[in-house]
Amino acid sequence: MDTRLLDFIVCPRDRSALRGSANQLICDQGHAYGIVDGVPVLLVEETEVPFTHNLARHALQSTRTDSPDLVPAPQDGEVDAFVSQWIAATNGSLYQHLVGKLQEYPIPNLRLPPGNGRLFLEVGCNWGRWCIAAARAGYRPIGIDPSLGGIRAARHVARQLGVDALFVVGDGRYLPLRDNTIDQAFSYSVLQHLSKENVRITLREIRRVVRPGGDSLIQMANKLGPRSIYNQLRHLVVGTQGFEVRYWLPGELLSAFRQELGPTKVEVDGFFSLNPQISDLRFLPRKYQAVVHASEALRKASRFLPPLRYAADSLYLRTKKTAH
């Protein structure tokens, strides 16, 4: 385990300090957490709180076996196998053609000012694409995700790309981080999958770990977007369960974020889909490139025509934490 993590992590149950050995961390109250392949697994047991994703269950199981089932680290020049298999799940359906065939990591551009060494937290980082983008923008990233496979892949990819970042298996509702530590919190295509109650719990945790004057930028799905409306109509037939997207009205988002995080503004992220980035055009077929170009044009237009935000499928909520 990277011992620098001990400067930031705490017990997710009682927030007391952690100490440990090569394969275990223990808090002052006696709660124990396993370390797998150098990754601390700081999850609260499912018997105490239901998991939001079944990959958390696999992560905990991996701490209880001498030989956990782990995807091998990639060789030099190889793309991590986990990333290649999960690329459509993390980046969206427009990337489906790349599953098992990925030749290069799609690293997005972060819509934030230069980091200048500020501490960056990504909630739900999976294989770490936004943490890598943050590091390249001058931040010091910490990525948290309930997937051990995702976190191991994030460490592999960061090492391959020469990026310095820290990663932990954890739950956004029980962030294993000290109070008032983070300068910039970020989450993309994650909270939109949680129940509204769990979103509020996670927002309160983000507020706890962000220092006064710090910032948050969180992506959510807009209930009024055209693609969102299509998906909601489809769900009337098949239903919504598990880790599928939950849709919010813009006013609902503003109300929840202002109550739980602080002063918040809504910005447009994109149209017609929830994940594709303009920086990823070379990864997409022409028909999808046209969708992304149209989305980017409308996003830029929304700066001058604010009502366009009501028709966007993907929104950003930008918040600054006040002292009280």
Could you walk me through the main structural features you see in this protein, from its secondary elements to its overall organization?
This protein has 324 residues and is α/β, with parallel strands linked by helices. The protein has eight helices and eleven strands. The chain has helices at residues 54-62, 81-91, 129-136, 148-160, 196-209, 226-238, 250-260, 286-301, and strands at 18-20, 24-27, 32-36, 39-42, 119-123, 140-145, 166-170, 182-187, 210-221, 264-270, 314-320. Strands 1-2-3-4-7-6-5-8-9-11-10 form an eleven-stranded mixed β-sheet, with helices on both faces. The longest helix is centred in the C-terminal third of the chain and has 16 residues, at 286-301. The chain is globular, with a radius of gyration of 19 Å. The two termini are 35 Å apart. 43% of the residues are buried.
Quick overview of this protein structure:
This protein is an alpha/beta fold and 324 residues long. The chain has helices at residues 54-62, 81-91, 129-136, 148-160, 196-209, 226-238, 250-260, 286-301, and strands at 18-20, 24-27, 32-36, 39-42, 119-123, 140-145, 166-170, 182-187, 210-221, 264-270, 314-320. The chain has 8 helices and 11 strands.
Question: Topology, please?
Answer:
Elements: E1 18-20, E2 24-27, E3 32-36, E4 39-42, H1 54-62, H2 81-91, E5 119-123, H3 129-136, E6 140-145, H4 148-160, E7 166-170, E8 182-187, H5 196-209, E9 210-221, H6 226-238, H7 250-260, E10 264-270, H8 286-301, E11 314-320
Parallel strand pairs: 4-7, 5-6, 5-8, 6-7, 8-9
Antiparallel strand pairs: 1-2, 2-3, 3-4, 9-11, 10-11
